[in-house]
Automatic annotation (TrEMBL):
The keyword Acetylation applies. One of its GO terms (biological process) is skeletal muscle contraction. GO terms for cellular component: troponin complex. This is Troponin I, fast skeletal muscle.
């Protein structure tokens, strides 16, 4: 147990030492970023001196507007370049994907689902219509009508099959044709 306690204490000591180093590194990085920001602003943004007369102010405003326009044009150009390169990257990735040919289709499972269940899955709670197709069928009673009796009496082709089978049947058909 002493070894375990010693190992735990050493681990905690190492962890606290690493945390202290990380905190100091973060502070150094933040200070470096701040210095870099100040240098950039001093280089690119000279201190603003407001002139006293109206005409000088108007000239300053014109210069600022021209500068804003040029910066907007640069931004737009870089955005267009970025979109173009992104599109090219997507096309190249698609070509690479097609050339590999290792596209593996996921196995599809066969699902038996009724029309009601399918509509309920697609439409959610909006589905109110019942798709039971057999429920809407018209009930028809069988009645013997005169037409059906006449058709039955005319003759059933199945009755004469045995008579017409073989050579004798053909002979009778030939003679009947004369």
């Amino acid at each position: 147990q002493k070894k375990r306690r010693a190992a735990t204490a050493r681990r905690q000591h190492l962890k606290s030492a690493m945390l202290q180093l990380a905190v100091t590194e973060i502070e150094k990085e933040a200070a470096a970023k701040e210095v870099e920001k100040q240098n950039y602003l001093a280089e690119h943004c000279p201190p603003l001196s407001l002139p006293g007369s109206l005409q000088e102010l108007q000239e300053l405003c014109k210069k600022l507007h021209a500068k804003i326009d040029s910066v907007d044009e640069e931004r737009y150009d870089t955005e267009v370049k970025l979109q173009k390169t992104n599109k090219e990257l997507e096309d190249l990735n698609q070509k690479l994907f097609d050339l590999r040919g290792k596209f593996k289709r996921p196995p599809l499972r066969r699902v038996r689902m009724s029309a009601d269940a399918m509509l309920r899955a697609l439409l959610g709670s909006k589905h109110k219509v019942c798709m039971d197709l057999r429920a809407n069928l018209k009930q028809v009673k069988k009645e013997d009508t005169e037409k059906e009796k006449d058709l039955r009496d005319v003759g059933d082709w199945r009755k004469n099959i045995e008579e017409k089978s073989g050579m004798e049947g053909r002979k009778k058909m030939f003679e009947a044709g004369e």
